[in-house]
Design goal:
By secondary structure, the chain is mainly alpha-helical. The chain is globular, with a radius of gyration of 14 Å.
Length: about 110
Amino acid sequence: MTAVYSAALIISPKILAKPAGLTTAEGEVSRPVGTLVAAIGARDTAIGVAMLLAPPGRSLQVAVAARVAADLADAMIFGFSLPDPSARRKVAGFATCWGLLCAASGLRR
């Protein structure tokens, strides 16, 4: 599921840019913002695929840890850096939830 959501960010950066308050006044995504959101999507897609393909054990633990670390880093960066306080809380909370869900999924394998 995490890989699918992340791939969607590559196709449509607006999925993250809009709730983050990073769209233009017209609701569009600028090229620089789109590039960064797509990069986040590519990173998370790669980690998500690694989580799906990793065998149980150390490989899976490392893949899950990478995803949790990425999500918590996103929560910190977006949580402190976005211009709108409401967007900071929303996006940081969403990233934290993804991290917790990924951590929980790693415990189940």
